[in-house]
Amino acid sequence: MNHIASTVADAALRDFSRDHRFLSINTATVRKQGDLLAIIDACARAEIRAISPWRDQVAAVGLDRAVTAVKAAGLELSGYCRGGMFPSDAAHLAEMRDDNRRAVDEAKALGAPCLVLVVGGLPQYSRPGSAPSKDLGAARIMVEDGIGELLDYARSIGMPLAIEPLHPMYAADRACVNTLGQALDICDRLDPARTGFLGVACDVYHVWWDPDLFAGIARAGRERMLAYHVCDWLVPTRDLLLDRGMMGDGVIDLKPIRAAVEAVGYAGYAEVEIFSEDWWARPMDEVLATCIARHRSAV
C-alpha cells in the first residue's frame, strides 16, 4: 500500500453495517430479471433508496412513465447511464451530438445528480457505421472535443457530467479514457475553475488495478468525485464484460478505496453495478438482498 493509501486506510468510514441508506442499485445489476418498472418496485420493497437507470431501460418503458415511477416510489438517483460514445466519422457527428443532448435532457427529467459518460473508443465501435480507424490518439481528441461541446449544453440546464474511466481492456470499443488521471486531465483542461459540472465516476471494477488510484482520488477532490460504483473482480474472470463479482467475492480491497473516496468529502451513494450472467440468472429479490448484505459487510 502506498503512502497515500496508508494515510486514508484508517480514516473513519461511514458505518454501512447497520442499514443500507447509502446503497444505490445500478439497474444493469438486475436488467435480465425485469423491466425498469419492476426494478423500481423491487427496490422500493427492499427499502433501497436510490437507483441509477440505463437509457435503454428508460426507453423501453417510456421517459414519462419512468419519471412518474421513480417519484411515486420515493427513489433518488445516484446517476444516469449513459452518455458518451463520442468518436465518430463526419457522417455520424450530428447523430452523436443529438444523442448526447437527449441523454442530458433525460437525466434532468429523472432528477439525476449527474450523467455518466462512457466516452467511446475507435469510431467504428463508438458509432457503428463510422469509417474504420486504428488511430486511438485521434479518438481521444474526439472524446475531449465532444465532452467540451456537451459541457456547454449540460451546464446551461444544470446537469453535471461524470467521465467514467474504463479498464484498458475496453480501450478500443468502449472507452479510450482508462485511468482517473486521464479523466482528470480532461476535467482540468475543460473546467479549470472546478465548477462542479465536470468530474468523474469512480468504478472500482475499472480502476482498482491502477498504481496511481489513490493519488487520482485525492486529486479529484469533492468537486470532481461525482459518483462511486462498486462490485468485485473475480479470479479467474470468465468474461471480461459479463462476469463481474458481487462485493466480497473477488480480489478488490474495497474498504481502503471507499476510505479514500470519503476522505475527499464524497458522501453520496455506493452504487452497485454488476454485469453478470450468474447474477442475472437469479431471482431479483435474491440479488437485491445479497447487495444489501454485502453493502453492509464488504463495501
Q: Count up the helices.
A: 13
Largest sheet strand order: 3-2-1-9-8-7-6-5-4
Distance between the termini: 18 Å
CATH topology, by name, is: TIM Barrel
**Could you give me the name of the CATH homologous superfamily?**
Divalent-metal-dependent TIM barrel enzymes
The percent of residues in helical segments reads 40-55%
Tell me the count of domains: 1
Structural category? alpha/beta
Which CATH class? Alpha Beta
Helix-strand string: HEHEHHEEHEHHEHEHHEHEHH
| Alpha-carbon Rg, integer | 18 Å
Overall body shape: globular
Largest sheet: 9 strands, parallel
Mean pLDDT: 96
Mind telling me which CATH architecture this is? Alpha-Beta Barrel
Strand content: 5-15%
Overall number of strands: 9
**Low-confidence segments:** none
Description:
There is one protein chain. By secondary structure, the chain is α/β, with parallel strands linked by helices. The chain has a single domain (3-297), classed as Divalent-metal-dependent TIM barrel enzymes (TIM Barrel, Alpha-Beta Barrel), CATH 3.20.20. It is 45% helix and 12% strand. The chain contains 13 helices and 9 strands. It has helices at residues 3-9, 36-45, 55-61, 63-73, 93-110, 123-126, 136-157, 180-190, 204-207, 213-224, 254-263, 277-280, 284-297; strands spanning 23-26, 50-52, 76-77, 80-84, 115-118, 161-163, 198-203, 225-230, 270-272. Strands 3-2-1-9-8-7-6-5-4 form a 9-stranded parallel β-sheet. Strand 4, helix 5 (93-110) and strand 5 form a beta-alpha-beta unit. Helix 8 packs parallel to helix 10 (213-224). The protein is globular, with a radius of gyration of 18 Å. The two termini are 18 Å apart. The relative contact order is 0.16.
